[in-house]
Design brief:
By secondary structure, the protein is of the alpha+beta class. Among the domains are: 163 residues, Uridine Diphospho-n-acetylenolpyruvylglucosamine Reductase, domain 3 (2-Layer Sandwich); 179 residues, Vanillyl-alcohol Oxidase, Chain A, domain 3, CATH 3.40.462. Helix content is 26%, strand content 21%. The protein has 14 helices and 18 strands. The chain has a seven-stranded antiparallel beta sheet with strand order 13-10-12-11-15-16-14. A five-stranded antiparallel beta sheet has the order 3-4-8-6-7. A two-stranded parallel ribbon has the order 1-2. The longest helix has 14 residues. It starts with a helix and ends in an 8-residue tail after the last strand. The relative contact order is 0.12.
Length: 489
Amino acid sequence: MPTDESHVQAAVTCAKKLKVQLRVRSGGHDYEGASYASEMEDPFVIVDMAKLRMVTVNIEDSSAWVQAGATIGELYYRISVESKVHGYPAGLCTSLGVGGHITGGAYGPLMRKYGLGADNAIDVRMVDVNGQVLDRKSMGEDLFWAIRGGGGGNFGIILSWKIQLVPVPEKVTVFTVAKTLEQGLNKILYKWQQVADKIDENLFIRVIIQNSKTPKGDKTVIGLFQGLYLGRADQLVKVMQRDFPELGMQKKDASEVSWIESVLYIANYPSGTKPEILLEAKPSFINYFKAKSDYVRTPIPESGLDGLWKRFMEDESAALMIWTPYGGMMSKIPESQTPFPHRNGTIYMIQYVASWMDGKTSESRHMEWVRKLYNYMTSYVSMFPREAYVNYRDLDLGMSEDGGASFIQASAWGSMYYKDNFNRLVKIKTKFDPENFFRHEQSIPPLPVMENKENIDLETCDVQAVDISPNPGRSDPMYIVYSRKLSTA
């Protein structure tokens, strides 16, 4: 547990010399535990960043430096102490470690207005594979591009981020409206899919879907439509009546609060909880779970929803889905601006969660259920590739048991997490970490680069090769080669 940046440098230097692998954790929220556990046989050391958690806010230039071990809740609190009209667009779960959170993208309720946490990261301090501390200027724009959405544990150890704060109203409005199947959830949810990404970009409405019971005790499904509006309640009601009247949201359903109070509300803290609880940096619950993710580009028809509910109610435990709307600023930022590619054309993201409390006893049953539900959704979600969110790591998508995945092997999950940006990430990995020191079960692999490639005639030689450079066919190509027989021109 380093208490100084130099300790992290020493850890990298010593681990390289002793050929010991490092695992790096900031908040410990890795969904498959890859930041603190390993499927590989090699011994490893955990570098736990929890004691590097300083936050320095500069309201004059609307920025802050935050160390990797701080939680997103601590960051939010420190911002709120300095200003009532500044915020930061990042996660809804307040115990997330900032270091890894931003490396994967960092979405949250402000993203439709301001984009992701990674979109608003403007500088960094990171220890590279050589044990050197780099900032944005010294690492260059390629590496800085890669670490803002290219996933944790791939390129170095984040020490701290400099982030751009964003303006928020002194009062925002939050609400939750519940609808069951008997109250027309199917039709309301179908309409939500039509408007969620197109509605006023100041409005974020996610849907939390879970099993429930009717007053008679029968099984049903309930959807909690939870919203944050960057404005007052009167204006929110007008927007909802104009664009989403099917929900039946009324002013009595809404509460006007400060931005930091909205953070507590969305994180499901009890009403009246003081913001200082965010300094405890603890998750609100602890359980066993398996999660998966999807992106939806075409509304799921009501018939598809009917089939979903039948399968959803097969699990008696805490089965859960969260539908998170995109659109707004997320549609305006090009897919290639950061490694996070899920931009224009995405209506919403789905997170599937099966959770349980009794350890291994019922694990297989819950794991099987969430996988079956995921398989059912295949025809309703994004295709070619079927997309996934890297911060919801899912080893079902494929993994390397020794961390030495080939380009072809890694593209199985890489294309789902990063789409076309995966190729550029591989090229950057090859340049900055060619020996693959920073690795895990789903890390970005480096490639052996062909020397004197200008002398190889790929048209006539006995070789299978693919140009994986960011602009195939243009200058500075990089090839992955699948055979050994080469003839030179």
